[in-house]
Amino acid sequence: MTKPTDPEVVHDLVSYAEIARVVELLPTLVREKRRRDGLSLRAAGDQTGVAASTLMRFEHGTGGVSWEKVPVLLRWVGEVTPCAS
User: Fold this and answer.
1) Hey, what long-range contacts does 60-63 have (CB within 8 A, 24 or more apart)?
2) pTM of the entire predicted model
3) Is 51 helix (H, G, I), strand (E, B) or coil?
4) Which of 16, 34, 40, 43 has the smallest CB count inside 10 Å?
5) Euclidean distance between CA atoms 13 and 69, whole angstroms
6) What is the domain partition of the chain in residue ranges?
């Protein structure tokens, strides 16, 4: 049984407008995470399972990704990469 304080439990439903906004921002979020983590398109593609050429077009707004990859990319941009000390 999950507790109400578990971070994995969603407490509030989000609106379609909020979902649309996140999907709209996803290419920018992908590019920012890739650059912040110092990853090439190829390395990001290896981590996400999305071809580097597809990621490049996606980041530049000249192409999309399959709908199956949207949740993968959302999880990926949400991951926190530990900083090297």
Assistant:
1) 60/27, 61/27
2) 0.75
3) coil
4) 16
5) 22
6) 16-66
- Phi and psi at 42, nearest 5°, equal -65, -45
> Comparing C-alpha atoms, which of 35, 53, 52 is closest to residue 43?
52
Report the alpha-carbon distance of residue 59 to residue 50 in Å, rounded.
12
43-72 pLDDT, tens digit each: 999 999 999 999 999 999 999 999 999 999
- Angle, CA of 23, 25 and 30, to the nearest 5°: 100
Judged on CB neighbours under 10 Å (0-12, 13-18, 19+), 5 is exposed
